[in-house]
Design goal:
Helix content of chain B: under 10%
Largest sheet of chain B: 6 strands, mixed
Largest interface: A-B, 28 and 24 residues
Number of helices of chain B: 0
Radius of gyration of chain B: 14 Å
Number of helices of chain A: 0
Largest sheet of chain A: 7 strands, mixed
Number of strands of chain A: 11
Order of helices and strands of chain B: EEEEEEEEEEE
Shape of chain A: globular
Distance between the termini of chain B: 41 Å
Oligomer: heterodimer
Radius of gyration of chain A: 13 Å
Amino acid sequence: DSGVTQTPKHLITATGQRVTLRCSPRSGDLSVYWYQQSLDQGLQFLIQYYNGEERAKGNILERFSAQQFPDLHSELNLSSLELGDSALYFCASSASSGAENIQYFGAGTRLSVL
Amino acid sequence: EDKVVQSPLSLVVHEGDTVTLNCSYEVTNFRSLLWYKQEKKAPTFLFMLTSSGIEKKSGRLSSILDKKELFSILNITATQTGDSAVYLCAYCTQGGSEKLVFGKGTKLTVNP
């Protein structure tokens, strides 16, 4: 168990809908990262938050947004869902920046858009 | 464009065999290289390498980095069926974001 908790484990929804994925980082970790894993693309970085502030963005769609709350948990919001958004969404956390920054991954949320 | 290439894409071996997984990368602001093991869902951390030529070991697994030639290898000796998984290689860059850029992985199957 990595100590990173993601809910829900599975989500099934329809095109056009909006969903929220939740992540609780390991105790004491300030950074939260979101990744998308699809069959053809592998693991792709979406966005990073550090202590409540957005630090970096990857190829995150405009329909997607995220935030990190004062208690350091994070939410990833996906709206106007399309079939192609079906994927595994992972959250990872790390203690801080620096050379020994190791990211620990949660078990993921499997999103199926029908 | 920064990228990570892993080879082979898949590998089938028998228990007791030794395997070597390869990872080459192209990146401008290299900070570290990481190996993860992904079984059913969550990638689990194996190694982080930052310096060339220093081997990291954990039981039957070991890894080494060559920063001059821009590659890393992951060795698994005396493989067991529990080693069956996808092994992911990723690099982390310097400055600003600590995002990981992943390769597509090597799928290892260890048969009894």
